[in-house]
Design a protein that fits this description.
It is a single chain. By secondary structure, the protein is α/β, with parallel strands linked by helices. It folds into two domains: 83 residues; 250 residues, Spore Coat Polysaccharide Biosynthesis Protein SpsA, Chain A, CATH 3.90.550.10. It has 16 helices and eight strands. Strands 3-2-1-4-7-6-8-5 form an eight-stranded mixed beta sheet, sandwiched between helices. β1, α2 and β2 form a beta-alpha-beta unit. It starts with a helix and ends in a 12-residue tail after the last helix.
Length: 389
């Protein structure tokens, strides 16, 4: 029984440490703060790079949110990557410079971005902003990123919305996405800690991105790039003044496939946290240790699964050994995690996510739990466009 108790204590520690990091981030993000206007240098030339794979149906709407924000000397470049539709033609008609890429071996967003950066080298910009082809760039975002990414990479607030009429599981996913991509990076910013890259709305000084290892082939190429940049001593900063939005797919099969690919990549990226600790020592940047702790926090579905497993183990120990303190500790840990999510919902999402979604979260999260298990067992590398209704 002693072995079981020690194993249970180890499981409790495994769940408690990332929970502590998560709760501290949420608490730091809660206070309201006034935003100061960004100081924009209009002489800085921006290139907005849009990697696209079979996006003819929606790319014109994306480009229409970007073009009005460009200044004289800026560029809008679409990389039509291995497209089998009219993405390139639609993008040209919408006013973009289009680079068409065809490579049956090196497929994926990271290869598309790498090719786009090579294409830009003939007329070097000062800053490169990457926007996914299915996103909408809110007014003022380009200038906010222009100001934020002068010396270091910057990440916009990237939000995914549940479409009208979407099932409660998608509303819950919207909340979890908001917590990961906005609440936690905002908390890190207020604690003086850099953030990770989250995909769309990434901005880079040309001096950094031209030499970065972009063609990683990773499913989470944004996360891998953030780790690489941080390890080199130039971690990204959060730019909450810039907002980029997209829509979740309404189909359960498409959403499940998307989530499984993402979870697969994230769980493997977590293993690189020690690399950031070493970088903190090498570059004498203590904030990278905090970023390593952020990287080591598992997706919330997995974190909750850890707490549920800990509660089950603690209950078994209590029934056999009449020792109930581990069960109380596990219950407290799960309760603190739930409370942090409720506070984040109250502050950032109650206008879009109904309270009923929170009450039914254990039921709605079951598909995400299955996706988390699948992500541990399956390798996902190929860039497949997510089907949208």
């Amino acid at each position: 029984m002693t072995v079981a108790v020690y194993g249970l204590l180890g499981l409790l520690a495994l769940a408690a440490l990332p929970t502590l990091v998560f709760v501290v981030e949420v608490l730091a993000a809660l206070p309201r703060a006034r935003r100061g206007a960004a100081v924009v240098d209009p002489s800085l030339r921006v290139a907005v790079l849009v990697p696209a794979h079979d996006e003819e149906a929606g790319i014109a709407a994306t480009l229409a949110t970007i073009r009005p924000q460009l200044r004289e000397g800026d560029r809008l470049v679409v990389v039509a990557d291995n497209c089998s539709d009219a993405t390139a033609d639609v993008a040209r008609a919408a006013g973009a410079d289009v680079f068409e890429r065809s490579d049956d071996v090196h497929r994926g967003k990271s290869f598309a971005i790498a090719s786009g950066v090579t294409y830009l080298a003939a007329n070097e910009p000062d800053i490169v902003i990457v926007v996914d082809a299915d996103c909408r760039v809110e007014a003022g975002a380009i200038d906010a990123l222009r100001a934020a990414a002068v010396e270091r990479p910057a990440q916009a607030a990237y939000v995914m919305r549940a479409p009208d009429g979407a099932p409660p599981s998608r509303r819950l996913a919207e909340l979890m996405f908001l917590v990961r991509n906005v609440v936690r990076p905002l908390g890190l910013q207020r604690l003086g800690v850099p953030c990770l890259l989250t995909g769309a709305g990434m901005a880079f000084p040309w001096s950094l991105i031209r030499g970065a290892a972009l063609a990683s082939g990773s499913v989470v190429e944004d996360l891998q790039l953030a780790v690489d940049l941080a390890a080199d001593g130039t971690p990204p900063r959060f730019c909450g003044a810039a907002r980029v939005t997209s829509l979740f797919p309404t189909g359960e099969a498409a959403a499940g496939a998307q989530q499984t690919r993402w979870l697969w990549g994230v769980t493997r990226a977590m293993a690189q946290a020690p690399r950031l600790v070493l970088a903190a020592l090498r570059h004498r940047q203590p904030s990278l240790i905090a970023l390593a702790a952020e990287l080591a926090v598992p997706p919330l579905t997995m974190l909750f699964a850890l707490w549920m497993l800990a509660i089950a183990g603690a209950l078994a120990v209590g029934l056999v050994a009449h020792e109930w303190r581990p069960l109380a500790g596990a219950g407290l840990g799960l309760g603190v995690c739930v409370l942090a999510i409720v506070m984040a919902w109250l502050r950032f999402a109650r206008d879009r996510v109904p309270a009923s979604v929170l009450l039914g979260a254990p039921l709605y999260a079951l598909p995400a739990m299955r996706a988390a298990l699948a992500s541990l067992l399956r390798r996902r590398q190929e860039w497949n466009r997510t089907a949208r209704d």
